[in-house]
Target: Adenylosuccinate synthetase
Amino acid sequence: MLCKGKVTVVLGAQWGDEGKGKVVDMLAADADIVCRCQGGNNAGHTVVVNGGQFFFHLLPSGIINPRCKSILGNGVVIHIPGLFEELEQNEAKGLKDWKSRLIISDRAHIVFDFHQQVDGMQELEKGSQSLGTTKKGIGPTYSSKATRNGLRIGDLMGDFEKFSEKFKTLVTTYQRMFPSLHVDVKSELERYKGYAERIRPLVKETVHYLHSALKNGQNVLVEGANAAMLDIDFGTYPYVTSSNCSIGGVCTGLGLPPSTIDQVIGVIKAYTTRVGDGPFPTEYTCVCLTKLDILDTLPELKVCIGYRYNGKEIDYFPSTASELAKVEPIYETLEGWNSKTEGVRSIDQLPLNARKYVQLIEDKLNVRVGWVGVGAGRESVVKVPTL
Ligand code: GDP
Model:
């Protein structure tokens, strides 16, 4: 399934929670390396294996596969205490040997606790206009990165005196903006001295590592966090996340040239449609349609197949929230299938009306549906053969 010496990418095509975790877990069976390229622990992926659940926020879901190396790339922002907490929680559930398999980019930026406090303060300041962020400090950390006073994992690995100086400068900058921000600099630095030693064995220059792995014919899988509609450039700005979670973020967040990318798999939930044609479907070579089972009991399905703006059908994705608010959906109605699909494992066992629905999605998106999800479990997948 994955191509030797190439990169396969899994991206959410809606607003998140499409079930990317399960798709990545499934594909990771063939992968040598699984990577995260953007975002931080504001993402959430659930993988159900043999009835047990693993929860991932920062780690790639593919880390469950004991054969895979896992990379947190340069485009990811890392809250180190959160990372260790996540590792410990998943270790208790059976995650094995992560110490020899997890690799962290020295270029990744650090999310500090004060970034999280600032996130909360910024949301409060916005009042009724708040963005509904997860308050995990992701936006403020990307702001520090863009302002060029952020601290990277590499800074923590170097001279601790210099790290301390930069840390103090960053805190002072934020305290000027938010005078009520309290940071116990001495104890924070003490804590980070400890984290530096814990994280050191995991840190590498990941760009060269990935290039050598690809040259040696290894299969690389990239797991996008968040989703296309939350992309800072192409999503529903300002209600978006603070990174590029469409295909561009894969190249910049891992240092991968576009020519290394073989397949781009878009994950979509069966019950949310996307707007217009826009740039998104053209990014994908294939789609994974999840949660079809959720529609099992519907008598009919009203599928939004496009939008009208000022009475005219549009073939682009509106760039402003005010334009989006005025678009009018165009529906096509299909009959439901009124039967349980959870136990279905092949396309010919799917009820006819469910197959018609899958076909409509393929026709409208002009992209092949490669898999259909019919339940949360690892086994609840219908592979759609290529004709
Ligand atoms: P992600 O953020 O895109 O990785 O999405 P999550 O991992 O948070 O998935 C959302 C939820 O959907 C999780 O509880 C999954 O176990 C569940 N899920 C994934 N695929 C399916 C499916 O095909 N059917 C059903 N019913 N649930 C699914």
